[in-house]
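Quick one: Membrane protein from Neobacillus niacini, structure tokens please.
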Amino acid sequence: MNRFKNYALWIAIAAVAGMALVDFGVIANTEVFDNYVEKILYVLILAGVINNPTSGTGFKDEK
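--- reply ---
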């Protein structure tokens, strides 16, 4: 269950879901979608959610 607490897993799942929506034609204007994804990633990077350098563990699940 610790695997589901990993932020990188949820970011990857969201990316795959977004690509699937574009491929199936649910999202027709990919330029707007790309802009939203870019802005969300900027916020996540600034918040330190993707990689927390203070703990020194990077993407590892356990210390």
